[in-house]
Amino acid sequence: MSLMSISSKKSLWIITTVKNHMEGLKKLKKYRVHSENDCSFKLDSLEEAERIYENWKDDYMCEGVRESESYVEIAESEDDFEDYKVIKKVVAVIDHDRHELGTPKEEGFDWDYWAKWLEVVE
What we know:
Layout: H1 3-26, E1 30-35, H2 46-63, E2 71-77, E3 85-94, H3 96-99, E4 115-120
Antiparallel strand pairs: 1-2, 2-3, 3-4
C-alpha cells in the first residue's frame, strides 16, 4: 500500500468522523422556558429547564396571574428553536376550592380570585 492511499484513507476517516460529530451536535436537545411575558435562554438539560419552570411558576403566582392567560411551559428543540415542541405546560385557573374558604378581598388582598396552576396536555 502506498503512502498516498494511507493518507487519503486517513483523511477520509477524519472528515467522516468530524461530519458525524457535527451532525450529532445539531441533534442535541435544547430547552427553554416560556411564559406569556418572558422566554429563558437556551438550556442544555431538562433538569435545568424544570428548575427554572418551577421557580417561574412560584414567582408568577406571587406577582399575580390572569385566569386562562398566564402560563409557564418548557419547550424542547433539536434545531436551535427554529421548531420546538412544548413538553410541559401549566395555565392559571381559578381555585374554586380555595374560594369556598373566602375570597382574597375578604382576607384583605387586592386581587379578585385565588388561582392555581393546572397542567395541560398539548
